[in-house]
Amino acid sequence: MQVRGLLLLLALMLLAATTEAGKNKKEKVKKDGSECEDWRWGPCVPNSKDCGLGYREGTCKDESKKLKCKIPCNWKKKFGADCKYKFESWGGCSAQTGVKTRSGILKKALYNAQCEEIVYVTKPCSSKIKSKSKGQSPMPLF
């Protein structure tokens, strides 16, 4: 009989602990106290220079917030750090212009950023000729 009582007490303690843990999770989800759902976010503004840590301002009705953000130092400045593109392979080198071209299709626009659907990038052609046997030993002749 004492075993049943002990098991019942243990089950009640376990139930109380899980209920309390569930309450804590619900409280953490809504920590900012804002009920606004239509936030408009501005671009990420770096603290210094043109990349690195910075902040993004958001507004919703009468409320405003600042979020920390980061602009990678190798980002495509022309497109903005909030526009993510899927780029195809580089095209061949144009003998007339001396540049290669490739296009990118918009994959994701973060924070409702205004992004172009398709972008084009160019870069100078390489003067080096790349060998295909990079790091491989030649095949033995039999």
3D structure, described in words:
With 142 residues, the protein is of the alpha+beta class. Among the domains are: 35-72, Heparin-binding Growth Factor, Midkine, Chain A, CATH 2.20.60; 74-127. The chain has one helix at residues 2-29; strands spanning 40-41, 45-46, 52-60, 63-71, 83-87, 99-109, 118-124. Strands 1, 2, 3 and 4 form a four-stranded antiparallel beta sheet that branches. Strands 5-6-7 form a three-stranded antiparallel beta sheet, with no helix packed on it. The longest helix has 28 residues, at 2-29. The chain is elongated.
Q: Mean pLDDT, rounded to whole units?
A: 77
What can be said about the biggest beta sheet? Answer: 4 strands, antiparallel
End-to-end separation in angstroms reads 87 Å
Low-confidence stretches: 24-31
> How would you describe the shape?
elongated
* Fraction of residues in H or I helices: 10-25%
User: How many DSSP E strands?
Assistant: 7
Can you count the helices? 1
- What string gives the helices and strands in order? HEEEEEEE
* Strand content bin: 25-35%
GO molecular function, one term: growth factor activity
Signal peptide: 1-21
Main location: secreted
Domain Pleiotrophin/Midkine N-terminal: 23-79
